[in-house]
Amino acid sequence: MHDLTIGGELGGTKSAAILLDGAGNILNEFRCPTEAERGREAVLENIVAAARAVAGEDFGRVAAVGLGAPGPLNRREGLIYQAPNLGWQNVPIVRLLQEKLGRPVFLENDANAAGFGEWALGAGRGTKDMIYLTVSTGIGGGLILGGRIHHGRDDSAGEVGHTIVLPDGPLCGCGRRGCWEALASGTAIARAAAEALKGGRESRIRELAGGDPAAVDAAMVARAAREGDALAREVLDRAFYYLALGIVNLIHLLNPEAVVICGGVSKMCDELFIPVRRMVAEWAYAAMVRDLPIVPAALGDRAGVIGAAMVARAILRD
Amino acid sequence: MHDLTIGGELGGTKSAAILLDGAGNILNEFRCPTEAERGREAVLENIVAAARAVAGEDFGRVAAVGLGAPGPLNRREGLIYQAPNLGWQNVPIVRLLQEKLGRPVFLENDANAAGFGEWALGAGRGTKDMIYLTVSTGIGGGLILGGRIHHGRDDSAGEVGHTIVLPDGPLCGCGRRGCWEALASGTAIARAAAEALKGGRESRIRELAGGDPAAVDAAMVARAAREGDALAREVLDRAFYYLALGIVNLIHLLNPEAVVICGGVSKMCDELFIPVRRMVAEWAYAAMVRDLPIVPAALGDRAGVIGAAMVARAILRD
Prior knowledge:
- Chain A is an alpha/beta fold.
- The first copy, chain A, has two domains: 4-117 and 301-317, 2-Layer Sandwich (Nucleotidyltransferase, domain 5); 125-298, ATPase, nucleotide binding domain (Nucleotidyltransferase, domain 5), CATH 3.30.420.
- Chain A is 40% helix and 22% strand.
- Chain A has twelve helices and 13 strands.
- Chain A has helices at 40-55, 93-101, 110-121, 181-184, 186-198, 204-208, 218-226, 230-254, 264-268, 273-283, 286-289, 303-317; strands spanning 4-10, 14-20, 26-33, 62-69, 73-74, 79-83, 88-91, 105-109, 130-135, 139-145, 148-149, 258-262, 294-296.
- In chain A, strands 3-2-1-4-8 form a five-stranded mixed sheet, with helices on both faces. Chain A has a five-stranded mixed sheet with strand order 11-10-9-12-13. Chain A has a three-stranded antiparallel sheet with strand order 5-6-7, with no helix packed on it.
- In chain A, a hairpin with a 3-residue loop joins strand 1 and strand 2.
């Protein structure tokens, strides 16, 4: 009986595996260093070892392995185009792992995998259409529509961070101006605070950064805001304003049943849900925000591995 | 043998019906005035008469009727909540028509129906994910994702016209500022030109409007631009800029296989495709715009009835 599924996650420094039964219960978990510095073969052996370790003597019951990996990648060809953290280019990971594991392996973008995990067994459970947002260094996303990950033509859908919300706004890492992540991500928060400090503004943030504006990060801004610092409050208010604006746009476009938010910024500033919900409720069409959950993710750092396993299950079932 | 499908469209002044065979061929068409002023019963009788007339002696072969109607409506309950053009409120149109026609009737928002028509048999044929945009008085849309209309929780998905592309931008009819349709629709074009005229700008548009800025419409601006008028050119360039910007956002979010554009503005200014394609290609991720068709709709005013018929077929098939 092949009733178990393994979910794996391939990270720049750490990797993880989880074993799920047919009801979505977690039977076992395993974490290990990725050891990218030891080269591709070592990384692959680590993944294989993690998969075997997490299943143990039940490996014979494993139907498939889902693997979440950083993009860009090609799901259908099972190919990781580029993983700068791993120093990889064009690695046919699915074929390599299938050979070593003797099980079907399915590849998924790590953000989509985490979003699918939250949809299947986390904060979006029971919905049909869910928007998953990671607000962290950048803003990423996963769109679960009709109970499936919406991939798009090139597996590139969900580039929410690079939708433009303020034409001619601040320069984004991608080279465009006014991208959502240039206004509402952790990087944007840190940069706005650093610029104000360089302009001479007095703020608790300066102390927290040891006097060096270049050392400011979003966590310092969040901490200073909690301590009542005016600049920190302004910077966060502006970021939350744009966060809410982008969420309104997604709601108007996709009319989801839930918006699930995770990532560093949402964890550091968990009070963000209050102003963001208020602004979204004020700006969006009433019918589309009525009883709409805008909520933190529920699975923590297990979302990716759980989602990867559920992706594999969904593909087998189809 | 029930191999035929009727598609109907209920408009404020005109209604239409079409008869499709199983291969999507148009076997017959019928148009009639809606006669909203004669009351609800008369309108219903006109639809029934149109459906019977378009099928003629083949009515016995009709499997189902799809009906495109203006929203807001509830597909699942077969209810038109409000149709101001018809003076209707909470009309259970599906039940009423099923009783009169003796066939399953399926209701769909008219913009979605037209988009689905273009996807099934028009400019988006053969794609999986297609964005359909109507750029006219407002900007509306339909999202065909994975070969299905994406409806969302409240059947309200695709409110693309009310995604905000310029915070604190011009006031929109919906009360928000900087909505896409406040910057790139026919109404936005007419308003921008009228404001420039009120400000004293010399322009051919003034003549075309008989000297009255309040009389300006987008067609006059388009005509003046073709005649080389500088103000008209500026106004259109700005509208096309925002049109392209909104399309880039949709592409980054949904990574479609085609963007199909219809509506008054795209017809009046068919040259818009050239600058819009150029800007989109410049701004969007290269992989996501490579060989991406951004094209005019192909079915003209038949898109809605064809789409309504195809919606009914798709539901029966599911």
